[in-house]
Amino acid sequence: MNIITLIRRNTSYAYTREFKAQIKLFIPFLLGQLCSCAMSTVDTLMAGLAGTIDISGVAVGCAFYWPAYMFLAGLAYGVTATTSHLYARREIEKMKKSFFNALVICITFGVIVAALLAVSPAIYNFIPSDKAMIEVATNYIYFVAFSLPFTVVYNVYRSYSEGLGITKPTLIFGILQLVLNIPLNYIFIFGEFGMPRMGGIGCGATSCFINILCAVLMVLYVRKSKKYPRLDNNKNVNVLDKSISKAYLHLSVPIGITRTLEVTCFSLAAVILSPLGPIIVAAHSITLNVSSLIFMIPLCISITATIRTASNMGSKNWIKAFISLKVSSAINLVLYLVYFMVLLFLRDDIARLYTKDTSVLAITNGLMLLNCFYLFPDSWQNLFCGVLQGFKDTKIILINTIVAYWIIGIPLGLCLAYGYLGLPKVEAYGIWIAFCAALTYSSITYLLRVRYLFKHKKYPKLLAQSYTH
Question: Is it the case that residue 270 has pLDDT exceeding 70?
Answer without folding.
Answer: yes
